[in-house]
Known about the structure:
Helix content is 48%, strand content 14%. It is an alpha/beta fold and 261 residues long. The chain has one domain (8-260): Aldolase class I (TIM Barrel). It has an eight-stranded parallel barrel, surrounded by five helices. The protein is globular and about 45 Å long. The structure holds 2-phosphoglycolic acid.
Amino acid sequence: xxxxxxxxxxxxxxxxxxxxxxxxxxxxxxxxxxxxxxxxxxxxxxxxxxxxxxxxxxxxxxxxxxxxxxxxxxxxxxxxxxxxxxxxxxxxxxxxxxxxxxxxxxxxxxxxxxxxxxxxxxxxxxxxxxxxxxxxxxxxxxxxxxxxxxxxxxxxxxxxxxxxxxxxxxxxxxxxxxxxxxxxxxxxxxxxxxxxxxxxxxxxxxxxxxxxxxxxxxxxxxxxxxxxxxxxxxxxxxxxxxxxxxxxxxxxxxxxxxxxx
Length: 261
Ligand code: PGA
């Protein structure tokens, strides 16, 4: 049921911060966030691969309530895949959440729906949760193709998952034209797309599964627009890029709940 899904605010650092900077980032973030934030919102950080071991050590030794995430992985467990990292390697570092199918992976690195489907399944098989990304380009939106694009991505990328696997999933709706551009979808447009996503899940896996899937909005989220986005009934969290690089700004996004009560 709406309202019972626990919000999740995730910081996708992309290719920013070396491991020294990463340690400072999480220490500062943990210092600024207060227990009331953690009581109502799950907060995850998604550093680059080279930082993950350092961030894991800091989170665990200081007993921080931050959730450790990754930005990407391969779907195979091992093999001749130069430069890749397997889901099992991430699971061994207590990574809990892995972003799959981010639009930058799809657009810049040519990941297909099929790659994304294999990755989501591999992440789940390793006991972690995918943050499955979908979203339309500006041209697709202007042509009225938002719903079809998002529906197609969700169906193709999540095909074959069981109800149980789906129920714990996180899906991020990220309109590509809003990522890193300073342009944000209006709360109403973001809500409309997230509702479509939930509808696709309901159609494929049943209404109760759809009611438990957490859906994030991403694309130029800032402290100023976070509360209005989070007030929408089908938006359960935020996937934050640029604004997650500054612990003060990210903590102000997490604190959206103080403004909407
Ligand atoms: P942005 O990135 O917040 O910088 O727009 C969001 C994302 O790519 O996840």
